[in-house]
């Protein structure tokens, strides 16, 4: 019976599309130059003019520090204790059990079955093996203990369950399959504070609280932090935080040992030298305790925070990110839409939450959801501020980069340009995807001449505009602690 249902399901998925290339195609980008200077001109008189005043940047940087060392840090006893005191049904143990049930294929409708890389559905024993390795009893009534504070000594993938097994929906469903591994939460850059909540029975994985979420990482990528280490690290960072500006910068210590690659979004305590920066990096000793080592990087690879918020500096960071592949949940340390913006704004000292639905509340929000697509476009062109205006459309977010002549029009009328990391566009109903699959400069049009059937970002269910250069008007949205939101991808 199940076999017949599966065949019916596949026939249903393929209905309305005669060939596989109608489910997945490539959006033609040829009409939209990906050379940043073709749009944002270096000779513009405002190219080196700050678009955020210094006082506002200092306030933003103070909020940034708060997530590393203050009231919202995994090293903060009060913050961790709030997490640990959560009561059923919003406690760690209940949520972990719900995650296990969510990723089991038992009694699931066919459209919710999870698949491996080989296109075969996961057998029941996979989730049973994962569950057996989780010490569930350890998640019950955890008490805060400072010895469980740690720091990442490498870049780590963060998973909803302790496994590297992928959990794809069926690849015949438009917008599913690769790269949408449902277990993938995000990534943690080297040098990130964490609090260790639990370990698997084989000690290979650790469940950690980060500044943004709770998830499983490889245990050998974490070192325990003593009070002395934390105070040294924090005091140095408060004097000068150094942000990476050249993605995949090789971090080599003073002994010539390669430690890790540093991506845009990574920050380290450090100080300026004549040639660049001397930064502190965390290294594990033989007991897996954190020690401070040092590395040297050039001025082309990093900046003291906050980087002056000029169009010049924004395009400098965009230049090292543009064209990199889309990475759902930071898969392979590539960015998805929200990770792209989160990391882009780090050198400027602007903290954004990890998820797009929360990022929009980091500035003053204007909700244009009830407006037509054309009114939304007109509003963005009239009221949008290049580089400091972001737009949330429901499960996706992008940055407004300014208004420029339309290369597809004889009249070359002005159109809004966005910078974003996007998977693609789809028609309505969403039975196929025209894939972009990378970070791009992309116009916001009501319709695209390349394929008028595709639904524009201007015509999605939501259209919320946020001004990051203004004080948030929904501050409470970012102050609620919900374990389900922290733990579920």
Quote the average pLDDT.
94
**What CATH first level of the largest domain would be assigned?**
Alpha Beta
Q: How many structural domains can be distinguished in the coordinates?
A: 3
Known CATH architecture of the largest domain: Alpha-Beta Complex
Characterize this entry briefly:
The chain is 23% helix and 25% strand. By secondary structure, it is of the alpha+beta class.
Labels describing this entry:
25% strand; five-stranded antiparallel sheet; seven-stranded mixed sheet; globular; 3 domains; 489 residues; alpha+beta
Please explain how this structure is put together:
A 7-stranded mixed beta sheet has the order 1-20-19-18-17-21-16. Strands 7-6-5-2-8 form a 5-stranded antiparallel beta sheet. The protein has 3 domains: 23-49 and 309-319 and 335-487, endopeptidase fold (from Nostoc punctiforme) (Alpha-Beta Complex); 64-148 and 155-218, no CATH class; 229-304, no CATH class. The chain has 489 residues and is of the alpha+beta class. It contains 11 helices and 21 strands.
SSE blueprint and pairings:
Elements: H1 2-14, E1 24-26, H2 54-69, H3 77-84, H4 92-102, H5 124-133, E2 149-152, E3 156-159, E4 184-188, E5 193-199, E6 205-209, E7 214-218, E8 222-224, H6 227-239, E9 241-244, E10 249-252, E11 258-262, E12 267-272, E13 276-284, E14 290-298, E15 302-304, H7 311-321, H8 337-345, H9 356-359, E16 364-367, H10 373-383, E17 389-392, E18 397-405, E19 414-425, E20 433-443, E21 464-467, H11 483-487
Parallel strand pairs: 1-20
Antiparallel strand pairs: 2-5, 2-8, 3-4, 5-6, 6-7, 9-12, 9-15, 10-11, 12-13, 13-14, 16-21, 17-18, 17-21, 18-19, 19-20
């Amino acid at each position: 019976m199940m076999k017949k249902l599966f065949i019916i399901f596949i026939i249903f998925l393929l209905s309305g599309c005669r060939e596989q290339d109608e489910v997945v195609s490539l959006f033609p980008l040829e009409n939209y130059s990906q050379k940043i200077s073709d749009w944002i001109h270096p000779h513009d008189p405002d190219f080196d003019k700050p678009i955020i005043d210094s006082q506002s940047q200092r306030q933003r940087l103070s909020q940034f520090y708060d997530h590393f060392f203050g009231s919202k840090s995994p090293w903060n006893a009060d913050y961790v204790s709030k997490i640990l005191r959560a009561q059923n049904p919003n406690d760690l143990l209940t949520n972990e059990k719900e995650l296990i049930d969510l990723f089991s294929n038992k009694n699931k409708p066919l459209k919710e079955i999870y698949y491996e890389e080989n296109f075969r559905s996961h057998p029941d024993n996979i989730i049973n093996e994962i569950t057996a390795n989780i010490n569930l009893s350890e998640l019950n009534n955890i008490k805060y203990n400072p010895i469980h504070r740690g720091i990442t000594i490498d870049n780590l993938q963060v998973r909803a369950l302790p496994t590297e097994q992928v959990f794809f929906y069926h690849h015949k469903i438009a917008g599913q399959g690769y790269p949408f591994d449902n277990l993938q939460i995000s990534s943690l850059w080297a040098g990130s504070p964490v609090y260790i909540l639990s370990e698997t029975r084989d000690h290979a994985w650790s469940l950690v609280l980060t500044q943004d979420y709770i998830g499983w990482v490889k245990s050998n990528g974490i070192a325990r932090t003593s009070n002395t280490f934390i105070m040294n690290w924090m005091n140095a960072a408060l004097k000068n935080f150094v942000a990476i500006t050249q993605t995949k910068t090789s971090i080599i210590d003073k002994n010539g040992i390669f430690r890790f690659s540093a991506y845009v979004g990574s920050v380290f305590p450090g100080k300026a030298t004549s040639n660049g920066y001397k930064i502190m990096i965390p290294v594990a000793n033989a007991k897996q305790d954190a020690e401070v080592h040092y590395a040297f990087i050039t001025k082309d690879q990093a900046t003291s925070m906050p980087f002056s918020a000029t169009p010049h500096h924004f395009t400098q960071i965009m230049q090292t990110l543009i064209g990199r592949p889309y990475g759902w949940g930071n898969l392979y340390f590539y960015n998805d839409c929200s990770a792209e913006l989160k990391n882009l704004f780090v050198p400027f000292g602007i903290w954004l939450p990890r998820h797009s639905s929360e990022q929009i509340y980091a500035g003053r929000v204007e909700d244009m959801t009830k407006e037509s697509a054309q009114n939304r476009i007109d509003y963005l062109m009239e009221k949008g501020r290049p580089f400091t205006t972001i737009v949330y459309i429901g499960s996706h977010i992008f940055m407004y980069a300014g208004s420029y002549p339309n290369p597809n029009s004889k009249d070359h009328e002005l159109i809004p340009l966005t910078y974003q990391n996007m998977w693609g566009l789809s028609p309505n109903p969403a039975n196929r995807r025209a894939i972009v699959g990378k970070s791009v400069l992309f116009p916001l049009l009501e319709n695209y001449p390349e394929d008028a059937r595709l639904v524009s970002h201007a015509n999605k269910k939501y259209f919320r505009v946020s001004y990051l250069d203004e004080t948030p008007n929904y501050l409470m949205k970012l102050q609620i602690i919900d374990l389900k939101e922290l733990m579920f991808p």
